[in-house]
């Protein structure tokens, strides 16, 4: 297993108390696997992504552990985590378009960043140029200021930069959210290419847009209110989901070519619960059409088939 | 870049024109006129007084219609002629002012530049830790809230009178004559020190606070967060934050010039330091039109030139202006 | 309902913010002194009460007496009134003009913005003290009223700049577009949509203008262009220096007024920082 996360608990410290953003999260990703991380806003997916690389206040580590390539990832300790950052774990942030220092030429900034991580710029330059060509960026880019680039170019530059040292794990945080559909396609395909060319080993693609995941992810992990709902290979999630939340999520997706006369697109009524004082038992209970008495108890995240985990009493009753 | 600078030049040109017009206008509304005042000092019988009045009016160009006086003013301005000082008659105003300019530059340039430099670094330094910040910030706020002249008075009193370590009046001892000897130079420095420190301290406080705030703001910017996520060392992030925080401080310097000039003026009064501010006051007290006009002109020209110099520096330092993609930052 | 919650939230954090509380307390102390001091104090600030002339602080004269035997404390409390008046009025005028110019420039944009911006920059660059000196020199009789008009008329560019940029950023927000699309008149939009969101900012701008006005007034007074019919802290310092307090070591004459100004302006600035923290959740310490 490339990445293993066990019983991770992360709280957000606020003045009103601790928001239980991640509550006992356990999953693993195989080598070369692209796992999509999907869910509504506020479900904890970005917290999970960031916790794996930069767990800093107001986030607070409460418990659990993670390991990458068999080595422990010291996510609870910001200082010990530093050697891992960029080299073993890397991230393409949501704000990629403003992630570069506006007053520094891109090449110079890259060189300084690499130097600070004890990597000689000269030695990596040929590889950098190759990758720029791959994402269709001219090598002149290195001599320009970020403001001279378009949004899409900046995004591609940040993608190249983040993956330059061939990290084992890449976290892509909502990188397609601000893009138009055709650019979304291009960027997603680029991610897959990075994986295919072994620039990165495994990837977590965080997004609320399942259609993107359908295109590029090998497996999808669905989160709800700080807890894991379902994890399965992409095909299974899309065509045969087991968790009620996932089912509702998929059914609320419009299908290309389907005209919605016969049935209206169903959204999911209601709102996710506040995580300051989370509800007892299954967090989806209030909005779940299938909820029953047992749901007052928290359902465990159980593997019902190889590679398919669900946290729902209805589904796991036979395995209980 | 051309557009940016062109715009600035236009504004400065306009400002200069406006300022010169104000400069010329205002003394004309003063009660009394310089000739009458001058003559009041000398007691002559009324016939002689009338002749002298005409004579001096002519010399000062006051016997022509007002609009012509205005045009004459501009003409003589371009000839570098600012008239003759009535207070220090018959010395030309330009000469009087040029004697004072070195003292002003000597006082202003070091204090402005040093307080800006030291204040910025101190502010950045204070932003490092909460503990440092909570001690350094109050001090900076107190310094910047201190009126310039009170600090001058305090320093003059404490170090000059109580400790008797520094002189409190003039640019150099009355007993010495200006020359390049060590004695003279040391004496000049001795006289210069307290007014310099006074100007320096107040400015220092302001810059420290400004920079501290800028650094905190920059450390929360997206590029800082990205570098942090990629595990870049604090030193690199701070370096970028400092450099980016410095840019608005440069424009801030241009904006503060008016305030600093006012502070210098007041400090000169406290220490009887013979700069332009001191002369301006003397001109007002003696109702010397031309001296007042000349002082104001020098001040405004100096400020505009300094502003322009800072704008040039800013263009060099901020790549965004050079690429013409950032409109007005100032 | 939201506004009510917001107000309570501000009150909650406000009372807990050390900077705000301490700053406000200091200002209130001086304000009370300014309002009630001259009423309580026995001596007329201008009367020559001490036949011994200048004397250091004693039980009879809290702050000692001036060169002429006047009660420094009496002058001090009366001077506080002038200082507060000029500060509040001058600061208020400056903020008002700044709001007018800043809002209009920021909201309208285009050529209106260009013109107003040019105007702001011109007034900003001219060292206004020099102009004030010259203008104030002609008026034979000066009062607190004329002084605050001057100061307000020259201090507004700072407020205008700040308010303009805030208005700019708010103008492009969606709720303003909504209002505009629903046909609201510009003035109404400014007052009912933009201004409430800028309230906190306007308050802070006013506080800065207040402090700046006090400092400017002190400078003018010190040069000899202060009000001719009353006393102020700056005037006290002027008289002190004029009558040799420096050389004769009459420290009690010039230290209190300067200290008073520094304390008040300092408290204002610190209060401002505290207010910023209260209004801006991101700055609050955990």
What topology does this entry show?
The complex is a heterotrimer of chains A (320), B (330) and C (286).
Chain A lengths: L2 E12 L2 E13 L4 E5 L6 H7 L7 E10 L2 E3 L4 H4 L7 E4 L13 H11 L4 H14 L16 H12 L6 E5 L7 H16 L5 E5 L3 H7 L2 E6 L2 E7 H6 L4 H8 L50 E4 L2 E3 L2 H4 L4
Chain B lengths: L1 H27 L5 H8 L4 H14 L6 H13 L14 H34 L3 H16 L2 H15 L19 H38 L2 H8 L4 H38 L4 H10 L3 H29 L1 H4 L8
Helix pairs in contact in B: 1-12, 5-8, 5-10, 5-12, 6-8, 7-8, 7-10, 8-10, 10-11, 10-12, 11-12
Chain C lengths: L1 H15 L1 H23 L31 H37 L1 H16 L2 H11 L5 H28 L2 H8 L4 H40 L7 H10 L8 H29 L7
Helix pairs in contact in C: 2-3, 2-10, 3-4, 3-6, 3-8, 3-9, 3-10, 4-6, 5-8, 6-8, 7-8, 8-9, 8-10, 9-10
Number of strands of chain B: 0
The greatest interface between two protein chains, and residues involved on each side, is: B-C, 55 and 46 residues
Largest sheet of chain A: 8 strands, mixed
Average predicted confidence as pLDDT of chain A: 87
Mean pLDDT of chain B comes to 82
The secondary-structure element order of chain A is EEEHEEHEHHHEHEHEEHHEEH
Q: Any idea of the CATH class of chain A?
A: Alpha Beta
Structural class of chain A: alpha/beta
CATH names the topology of chain A as Rossmann fold
Number of strands of chain A: 12
- Biggest sheet features of chain B: none
* Helix and strand pattern of chain B: HHHHHHHHHHHHH
Intertermini distance of chain B: 14 Å
Integer tally of domains of chain A: 1
Structural class of chain B: mainly alpha
As a percent range, the share of strand residues of chain A is: 15-25%
Outline of the structure:
With 320 residues, chain A is α/β, with parallel strands linked by helices. Helix content of chain A is 28%, strand content 24%.
């Amino acid at each position: 297993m490339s990445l293993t996360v066990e019983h991770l608990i992360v709280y957000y410290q606020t003045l009103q108390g601790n928001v239980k953003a991640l509550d006992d999260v356990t999953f693993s990703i195989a080598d070369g696997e692209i796992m999509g991380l999907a869910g509504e806003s506020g479900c904890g997916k970005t917290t999970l992504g960031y916790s794996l690389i930069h767990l800093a206040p107001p986030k607070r580590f409460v418990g659990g552990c993670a390991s990458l390539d068999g080595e422990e990832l010291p996510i609870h300790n910001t200082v010990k985590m530093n050697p891992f950052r960029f080299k073993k774990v890397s991230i393409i942030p949501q704000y990629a378009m403003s992630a570069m220092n506006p007053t520094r030429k891109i090449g110079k900034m890259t060189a300084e960043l690499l130097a600070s991580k004890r990597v000689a710029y000269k030695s990596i330059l040929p590889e950098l140029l190759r990758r720029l060509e791959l994402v269709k960026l001219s090598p002149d880019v290195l001599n320009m200021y970020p403001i001279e680039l378009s949004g899409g170019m900046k995004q591609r530059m940040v993608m190249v930069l983040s993956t330059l040292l061939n990290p084992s794990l890449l976290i892509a945080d909502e990188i397609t959210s601000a893009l138009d559909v055709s650019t979304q396609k291009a960027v997603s395909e680029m991610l897959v290419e990075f994986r295919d060319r072994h620039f990165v080993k495994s990837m977590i693609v965080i997004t609320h847009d399942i259609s993107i995941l359908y295109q590029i992810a090998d497996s999808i992990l669905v989160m709800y209110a700080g807890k894991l709902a379902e994890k399965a290979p992409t095909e299974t999630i899309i065509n045969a989901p087991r968790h009620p939340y996932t089912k509702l999520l998929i059914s609320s997706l419009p299908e290309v070519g389907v005209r919605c006369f016969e049935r209206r697109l169903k959204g999911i009524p209601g709102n996710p619960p506040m995580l300051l004082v989370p509800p007892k038992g299954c967090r989806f209970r209030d909005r779940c059409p299938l909820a029953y008495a047992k749901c007052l108890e928290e359902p465990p995240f159980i593997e019902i088939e190889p590679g398919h985990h669900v946290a729902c009493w209805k589904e796991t009753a036979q395995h209980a | 870049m051309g557009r940016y600078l062109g715009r600035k030049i236009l504004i400065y040109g306009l400002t200069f024109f406006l300022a010169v017009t104000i400069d010329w206008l205002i003394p004309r509304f003063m009660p009394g006129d310089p000739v009458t005042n001058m003559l009041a000092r000398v007691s002559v019988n009324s016939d002689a007084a009338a002749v002298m009045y005409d004579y001096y009016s002519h010399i000062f160009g006051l016997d022509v219609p007002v609009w012509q006086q205005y045009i004459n003013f501009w003409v003589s301005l371009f000839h570098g002629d600012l008239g003759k000082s009535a207070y220090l008659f018959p010395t030309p105003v330009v000469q009087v002012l040029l004697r004072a300019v070195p003292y002003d530059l000597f006082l202003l340039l070091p204090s402005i530049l040093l307080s800006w430099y030291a204040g910025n670094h101190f502010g950045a330094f204070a932003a490092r830790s909460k503990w440092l910040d909570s001690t350094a910030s109050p001090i900076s706020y107190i310094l910047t809230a201190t009126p310039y002249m009170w600090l001058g008075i305090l320093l003059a009193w404490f170090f000059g009178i109580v400790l008797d370590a520094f002189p409190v009046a003039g640019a150099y001892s009355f007993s010495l004559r200006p020359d390049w000897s060590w004695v003279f130079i040391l004496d000049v420095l001795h006289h210069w020190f307290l007014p310099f420190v006074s100007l320096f301290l107040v400015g220092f406080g302001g810059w420290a606070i400004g920079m501290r705030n800028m650094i905190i703001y920059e450390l929360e910017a997206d590029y800082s967060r990205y570098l942090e996520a990629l595990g870049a060392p604090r030193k690199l992030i701070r370096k970028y934050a400092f450099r980016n925080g410095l840019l608005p401080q440069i424009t801030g310097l241009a904006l503060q010039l008016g305030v600093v000039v006012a502070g210098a003026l007041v400090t000169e009064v406290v220490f009887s330091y013979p700069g332009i501010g001191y002369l301006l006051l003397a001109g007002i007290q003696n109702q010397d039109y031309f001296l007042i006009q000349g002082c104001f002109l020098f001040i405004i020209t100096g400020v505009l030139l300094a502003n322009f110099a800072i704008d040039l520096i800013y263009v060099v330092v901020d790549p965004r202006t050079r690429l013409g993609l950032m409109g007005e930052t100032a | 309902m939201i506004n009510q919650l917001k107000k309570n939230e501000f009150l909650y954090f406000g009372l807990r913010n050390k900077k705000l509380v301490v700053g406000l307390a200091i200002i209130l102390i001086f304000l009370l002194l300014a309002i009630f001091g001259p009423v309580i104090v026995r001596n007329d600030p201008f009367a020559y009460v001490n036949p011994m002339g200048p004397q250091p602080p004693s039980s009879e004269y809290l702050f000692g007496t001036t060169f002429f035997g006047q009660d420094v404390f009496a002058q001090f409390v009366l001077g506080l009134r002038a200082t507060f008046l000029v500060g509040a009025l001058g600061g208020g005028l400056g903020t008002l003009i700044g709001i007018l110019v800043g809002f209009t420039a920021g909201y309208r944009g285009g050529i209106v913005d260009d013109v107003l911006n040019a105007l702001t920059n011109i007034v900003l660059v001219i060292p206004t003290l020099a102009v004030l000196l010259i203008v104030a020199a002609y008026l034979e009789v000066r009062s607190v009223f004329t002084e605050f008009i001057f100061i307000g008329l020259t201090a507004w560019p700072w407020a205008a700049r700040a308010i303009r940029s805030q208005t700019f950023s708010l103008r492009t927000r969606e709720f303003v577009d909504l209002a505009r699309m629903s046909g609201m008149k510009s003035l109404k939009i400014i007052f009912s949509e933009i201004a409430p969101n800028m309230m906190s900012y306007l308050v802070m701008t006013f506080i800065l203008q207040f402090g700046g006005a006090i400092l400017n007034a002190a400078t003018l007074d010190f040069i000899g262009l202060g009000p001719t019919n009353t006393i102020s802290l700056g005037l006290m310092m002027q008289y002190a220096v004029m009558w040799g307090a420096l050389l004769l070591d009459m420290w009690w004459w010039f230290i209190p007024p300067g200290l008073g100004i520094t304390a008040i302006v300092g408290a204002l600035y610190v209060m401002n920082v505290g207010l910023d923290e209260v209004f801006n959740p991101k700055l609050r310490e955990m």
